[in-house]
Structure prediction request, 1147 residues.
Amino acid sequence: MDMKIKHIRSILLAFVASLVLFSCSKDDKPNVENNKKDDLPQQETWVIFNGNADWSGGIYAIKENKSKNINLSGKQFYQLGYSAGGRIVGKTLYKLNGATSTELGITKFAIDPSQQVSHAGFLATPTNSYETNTLIVSDTEGYYWNLGAGGLKIQTFNPSSMQRTGEIDFSSLSNGSSYEAAGQLILAKRDDKLYVDIQHGTRTKAWQVKPNDLSVKIAVYNLSSKTIENTTTYNGATNLGLFADHVLWSIDEVTKDLYMVAIGDMVTQTPTSKILRIKQGENQFDESFELKINDFQYPSDFNRLFAHNGKIYTTISSRPTSYYGGGQHGVSYRQDIWYWTEIDAITRKAKRLDIPVDNFYAYQNPFLHQGEIYFLSNNSTDNFSGVTQYNPKTGETKETFRLEGSGRLMGFHIFND
Amino acid sequence: MYELTKACITVIFIYSSIGISVFGQETQTRPDSLIRQLEEITIEAKSIKKKLEDSPFAVQVLDMRKEYSHSGDITNLLNHSLGVKTRADGSLGSSVQVNLAGLQGKAIKVFKDGLPIELYGHSFNLGTISSNMLERIEIYKGAMPVYLASDALGGGINLITRKPIKNSAVFSYELASYNTHRATANLFITHPDRTSAYTGINASFNYSDNNYPVHAPFYDVSTARQSYHTTKRFHDIARSSYGEWYAGLRNKHWADDLRLTLIYSDFYKQIQNDAEMVRVYGEAFSKENNYATLLSFRKVLFENRLQLHLNATYSHFNTRFVDTATVRYNWNGQVQSSNMPIGEINRGNDQRLEFHLYSTRLHAKYAIASQQYLELSNLQQYQHRKGTDPLGTISVLDQIDILGIPAVYRKNVLALAYNAQWLQKTVESIFSIKYYKYKTTGYTTDKYNFAWQSSKKGDLFGYLAAVKWDNDSFLLKLSYEFANRLPDEYEIFGDGVMLKENLDLKPEKSHNVNLNIQQRLLISKQQLDFTANLFYRRVKDIIFLQLDIPFNRYINYEEFNIKGVEVETRYSPNPHISGGFNLTYQDIRRINIRESMFRNLEGSRIPNIPYFFGNAFLSLSTANLYKKKDRAHFQWNLNYVHRFFLKAIPRNQEPSLFGPVQDFQTSLIIPRDGRPGQVANDLALTYDFSSKKTSISAECKNIANAKLYDNFNVQRQGRTFHLKLVYQII
Prediction:
């Protein structure tokens, strides 16, 4: 018996030794972060969405520890299954869908003084299939599209309480098509009017709705009189927008012109992708204005849009590309080919900006903050994931920050405390 | 103790010498006199179990004969076993994956009597098989014997069906919560005068409404607010039936056993929800009808030096997947939205597929000297798929129904092994080499978007070495394998609609190391067993589903390092009481991330895989309770699964094993209610009547009605009650 006990002891000893051996790890290195403050604004909170290869990631809020080189390792975050689609209105963060991409709706987040991000409300659109569209104007005014509640209806909600408050009915615009939607891709508010895209077409397994004809339509709804003032059509363009969590419209806050992108058919890339305009005070498309992608590159399309002071900021691919092309190597449009470009809306002259090339994994449009326009870029060429700010008056660019080994940059927002 | 061990070895020796050796993992047949001897030796299965467990492979054998009285399917039994975790998408009828030593899904192969289970159709899968259909289950963690020639990356499970050697007829019926019914019938007949001819039937039937309560999200139409309530599932009926008839001749001069088996099975399953239990479906379903024919031939030649086993199979499956609803339901089963686009799940499917599968397997074992064998095994599989789906598989590019283009997949795995025993059989070694070859053809597009039928082929080698040392009651095993899993046709060609082809896809590769220690102590009537497994896996080129728009596709992307330990202790103070526990910890981590921007996840744990789990169990039995020779059993089992995350967490922010989650906020954790893990307690009481023909059992699973979750966020049943009757007619 003693022999047996010794035998077991020796086995256990070997076993424990093996456990120790197996538990050795080589990657417990401390994180080194460049905390050089430079001229980083101290009163701003930066909200960063990072993303992994499977699109999961987190929301980080950074105030005190801002840096030109941000390593998110060890920082507090709110975990997401699909990390994109964030929007800041005032000091509140909203995001399309929930922590997972199947939780369809709009989530509201609170960010406390310790930069901790927490869930603060959810408005559900459970019968949609991915494409909830929303416009949040203020803490008390919001709009969204929910197919389950009626494709030709816009839902209204109160962002403070995150409760639906009613709907705006566009059913009078029905023409009996098998698929109809109002506001699925464009929900823009200018003055006291809502600009809403109208789709008549058919829906298959393909990503896009196939329109009945080669035209796009915008309905203009007067929020005061609660009437549809006009429906304007632009021929030779289709599909106003691309992905639901990525709006492709922009109101120039200086000129008040409304711009929008017609992508065209993703498969055939016809009609060619165009940027269209509804001028200030107008209820119909400006027939004298269109920017065609084939004036810059073809086949390709416009896939980002921001307008400011008569200039349009978008990306132009450095070589022909398509969504369905790429053969056995998969999608070719997720490559380091998208260059941030400024196009003058009057002269149509384009200028490539001194901003790192992007691969279009992040959909967020540029935005204006305290006189500077902020652009997101991710690329594998320089292993860059970061933000560049551009002064439209001086033409100078400056790197705001870059992530260091912290995933892709999937979203960036700023609010002042 | 030495005497007992010696007796045990002697029994095994006798067993082997009279010809009931393990060959192709099935019992060979022998003349009646020997069969009668065997009948007297009631430890037949135990001997096979011991022989297998004493092999150099890291194998665990579950003797199903002890489980015939117990209810449920075999996933429960597997979950109670050391180092095994099954993952299901729901309850009865749902697809089941097995996690073994850190690997799961397609990396783990499941066999029925040594043949890949996919040859039998969905009606015979882990989620529907009752223990009454099986003789035993062999669980291989890592390297597998060559007769299971396959491209398993991390082991496999071999289900051995019942093969009586004398006339028998056994029936079982189980009634359980949620209108669940399970029935099995096993019949085996030999002619009293012509015992060389035999015939038999194995059949099973499963049905469940699966309408168990779940905590589900509800949507208020007027406010669009979401709240969670308990409701009953309403669209999850599962029904499967399986029947096989076989007939054979044995002990002929030209064949030791020649058997023909005809199989019919069908399967119907409603689909209630997505894997995260957010979306609810009210009309989608799948069903299939399967036919299969198997021919098996065995012969021992050259004075028992050569053992030969040939199998040939043909299977024909018709499957349907229907998702054509234009309404949407809420979790109460009420229509919530009408006039919606077709399809609740993924924009509509009305899919019909027709499969033809052919396979052959040759296994030969030749004794080149005393205690030295050469083994050769070759498995050849051919699959042809054609179908239609007017809603689902119309190519976006050229508007053709992709399923109308035949997809063909061929696979051949050839294995050669040298097996030897040394030092009075205390040491056994195996060296093996495998050659994998595959070819597949299917629909593809080139970069100019022209559709055409393309093909992809590849070949590669794998190898293994295993050794064991068996000293009295102590057993030590060490094995190494370089294993491959070949990409299948779906991973290479996709569906042409949402999933794009990738002709550059390479096989997954893994270096598998296993160290296994077993010790048994016998003191008087007391028995103490201790088992420990250490395992290491280095997995490369893992096939990863890259989600994107407009196409997803499979790519070789990740590399894992898996280190793990499993321990089990069983103690039995006397033959009427036994108890013990097992624990498994598997550290599955992502390594060598190629893109530097993603190195924040270097060393992170692979999400959605339980990494710490275990069981505790106690069994009591007593005899002569009401009548002489009757018997009652009481069994308790506790199953624990530690919390796990559904998405990756940077390693430096992982909470400690039992520490709170404090560096981040997440709802992507199972369970998400703050518990450190999930605990389920099961109780079973079984009574065997003195006639030995009837047994009846009553069970309560999950007696505390704990909230349990499985794959991703799928909620499992709460407390369930089961009543089961087993009756042996002859």
Observations:
- Chain B touches chain A through 85 residues (CB under 8 Å).
